[in-house]
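Box 3.1 — From sequence to structure: LPS export ABC transporter periplasmic protein LptC
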Amino acid sequence: MESEYLNSNKQNIFKTASGIMLLAVLLFIYSCSSNKPEEIKAIEEIQNIPSLELYDYESFITDSGEVKYHLITPKLLNYDKREDPYKEFPLGGHIITYDSINVIRSEIKCKYAINYEKEKLWDLRNNVEAINKDGVIFNTEQLFWNETEKRIYTEKFIKITTEDNIITGYGLEATQDLDEYEIQNVTAILEVETDEK
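Predicted structure (token representation):
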């Protein structure tokens, strides 16, 4: 009888201890996984603060030892702690692309830019001007450069100035070196007058 009481008592103590342990584990898990509004806000604020801020930045971007492009900017903000990391160029920049023997292929200047690292996508804005190796000038307010697809495009108004013509329209599809290009919706073609001597 005393043995049954001790076994019953031990079982109750074990059940109570097990219950307390289970409750403690559940509380611990809940406290670790609970995203309180203050914690979420703090995490979001950290993600919105650049991890790096550089001024008068200049860099050569290479691939397998070959220079792909030269980047010059007065200010760079690096947001690499985000789920979707990007670099912001709030004062714009100048990008010079090169071919395999380091000859300049094209240049792009803008007043604002964002580079989405995962997508390898540049969003260039505000007074964008691009020039290809033949001296053809492209002017628009927004231009996208997809490094993976090796193409440049926009849906915005575009003006292309060649040696002979000024072509305006909406939408552009081009190779990343701007050698091949097409305006989607041409609105005007004007001949450029040249001074004859």
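Summary of the box: The two ends are 126 Å apart (CA to CA).
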